[in-house]
Specification:
The protein is an all-alpha fold. It contains 15 helices and no strands. The chain has one domain (26-308). The longest helix is centred in the last third of the chain and has 25 residues, at 260-284.
């Protein structure tokens, strides 16, 4: 009787380890995953979708990352997202410092109609829906995380959304504002910020790009491509940081802490890749559109549906 109980306890412990650890998650694999995360994080092609589809296509030892038994991989991707957010903050640090400084000045003088106060307010408002839905339905989103067919379907939908936003957005946007914050303040309001926030929530599905859907919403609000991308970059930061605050403590309180070395290396790679990819995108959206990314999403999404359905 006692032996049976002990064996049951041992099996339970093994299951716990299986749930949390990627036993052969190597440093080389960490570099590859970090690079994929960093390159795709702020491109409108869904980093989470690629975090699922790339290992699925590679197969072999990579395929275990997305198995239903492995819960550590979600923590790994969130850690690398956090590294991306640090790079994003560094690139836009002057914008963030200006918004925060201007907001404090507005509160001090009780002048709540200033552009920094209003723009930062829109960012906060747009973050609330995705944060709330992420907490409420977190278990559901985690249950479908790691299933390639879902990511393939949502990546295909993402491509259609990008095309729709481009076709419906206006092309005759003048240069009424020389400052991105001023244009955001003029063309966005609280109701729009709420709508954008719920739109961002679609990015909880691996395959829908948070950046892409936020930028698409900006285009539909008659923002220029440059300003819409700026707004999307700003909105990405609090969501990523919020998810990290909620989930990353589990890295230190579960058996996943045995992977900290690999995660740290992957996060450094993710930081570097994000920095260069965002620098590229800032220049790209000054004159170009979402169409190339939409075509890419459709091609990879449909090919993945055929492969994994």
């Amino acid at each position: 009787m006692r032996y049976s109980h002990s064996r049951s306890l041992l099996n339970s412990t093994k299951l716990h380890l299986k749930d949390w650890l990627i036993l052969d998650f190597t440093y080389a694999q960490a570099v590859i995953i970090g690079f994929i995360q960093g390159i795709t994080e702020l491109f409108p092609i869904s980093s989470l979708g690629h975090a699922i589809l790339v290992p699925a296509w590679i197969g072999g030892s990579f395929a275990q990352f997305i198995s239903e038994e492995n819960k550590a991989y979600l923590l790994i991707t969130i850690a690398m997202h956090l590294a991306s957010s640090i790079a994003l903050f560094i690139i836009f640090r002057r914008r963030w410092f200006g918004l925060i400084k201007g907001t404090f000045a507005a509160i001090t003088t009780r002048n709540y109609q200033t552009t920094p106060f209003r723009v930062l307010g829109y960012i906060v408002i747009a973050t609330i829906p995705v944060g709330a839905l992420g907490i409420i339905f977190g278990d559901y989103f985690q249950s479908i995380f790691g299933k390639p067919v879902y990511s393939a379907a949502f990546l295909t939908i993402n491509g259609l959304l990008l095309i729709g936003a481009e076709r419906l957005s206006r092309r005759d946007i003048g240069h009424e504002f020389h400052d991105s914050d001023a244009e955001i303040d003029h063309r966005v309001n609280a109701r729009t910020a709420v709508a954008i926030g719920f739109g961002q929530s679609l990015a909880l599905f691996a395959g829908i790009s948070r950046f892409g859907i936020t930028m698409s919403a900006g285009l539909l609000r008659k923002l220029s491509h440059s300003v819409a991308s700026d707004f999307a970059f700003l909105l990405s930061l609090p969501v990523i940081v919020g998810a990290a605050i909620v989930k990353l403590p589990e890295l230190f309180t579960t058996d996943a802490k045995q992977l900290l070395g690999q995660i740290l290396l992957g996060s450094i790679v993710s930081f570097i890749a994000t920095y260069f990819s965002v620098t590229f995108l800032v220049r790209w959206f000054k004159t170009r559109t979402l169409y190339p990314f939409a075509i890419y999403c459709l091609f990879i999404g449909i090919a993945s549906l055929v492969r994994f359905a």
